Amino acid sequence: MKKFDYHRPQTLKDAFRLMEKYKGRACYIAGGTDVLVRVKKGAMEPDALVSLRGINELKGYERNGGVSFGSMTLIGELEKDPFFSRGFPALSQAAAVVASPQIRNVATIGGNLGNAAPSADCAPPLLTLEAELTLEGPGGKRVVPLEQFFQGPGRTCRDPLEIITRITIPPLSEKTGMAFLKTGRVNQDIALTNAAVLLVMDKGVCRKCRLAVGAVAPVPLRLKETEALLEGQTIDEDLLARIGEKVEQEIRPITDVRTSEEYRRVVTGVIVTRAIRSAKVNS
Length: 283
Ligand SMILES: Cc1cc2nc3c(=O)[nH]c(=O)nc-3n(C[C@H](O)[C@H](O)[C@H](O)COP(=O)(O)OP(=O)(O)OC[C@H]3O[C@@H](n4cnc5c(N)ncnc54)[C@H](O)[C@@H]3O)c2cc1C
Fold this sequence. Notes:
Layout: E1 5-7, H1 12-21, E2 26-29, H2 35-41, E3 48-51, E4 61-64, E5 66-70, H3 75-80, H4 82-87, H5 89-96, H6 101-104, H7 109-114, H8 123-128, E6 132-137, E7 140-145, H9 146-149, E8 150-152, E9 155-156, E10 163-169, E11 176-183, E12 193-202, E13 205-214, E14 221-222, H10 224-230, H11 237-250, H12 261-282
Parallel strand pairs: 1-3, 2-3
Antiparallel strand pairs: 4-5, 5-10, 6-7, 6-10, 8-9, 11-12, 12-13, 13-14
This protein binds flavin-adenine dinucleotide (FAD).
Flavin-adenine dinucleotide (FAD) binds at residues 27-35, 37, 52, 71, 75, 98-99, 103, 107-108, 110-112, 114-115, 120-121, 163-164, 190.
């Protein structure tokens, strides 16, 4: 493994300065559960890693009707902190099935999104919650809807110097129900497919529906055509059967080392309909 420098700045400005000094040969590291695997494999050979752990602005959360939380929030906090598990159960359900407890205790939400894996478990629930990311770089701050952040496997709209500082979830209606489901080869494995659902039900009618899936397209994907079939409707078993078929048409899975395109297509339809049933009960 090639030797690299390691820096732990205390402020965003110092982090930007370090990245500028290495002229594209440095990389941010949060929990390191993705970055260090790639460095050890030789898939990346940075001159330096710039740790985000010492930067206080990237930690904690504020309620503002919705919530704004720091990108260094641990996956384990999303899983266990009652603020998240009561307020955003689908996000907690997703966090609870990321890798192992050891990894969840160091891995961060910023890393889960920044890595831009199509299978990232926290992406679908945050897409259904219509989360926005705040990106800060030497030139200033900008806010990007999570849906526009992902551009392909491992690719995002983030400039290499920009840091994801905060994730913001807008306020939710009181009647919101949500659920997350994942299939993997074994527990704690990368998803073969995953799905998140957010529903607002009123007098038995679906007033709002947000659906998102992972590992079935080059990016974590909102299913807008399927959402449109549900909104304004009473959700019954006939409709759910049609929903399963529509999901199969809307996704773009591939065959890879984990499973086949056909498996992903059929199973995603099944887990989306199961998650809708579960979100409906909770709304
Ligand atoms: C054995 C194993 C099992 C795994 N299982 C799962 C799983 O089941 N589900 C799942 O979703 N993932 C899984 N992963 C992937 C990984 O653990 C998660 O994606 C994790 O959340 C990454 O967070 P991190 O803080 O460790 O990121 P890091 O490795 O530190 O960073 C990942 C990427 O994001 C960038 N980055 C990190 N933070 C920021 C920031 N604030 N601003 C800008 N860029 C940033 C880094 O530069 C890097 O490119 C697994 C990994 C391993 C090794």
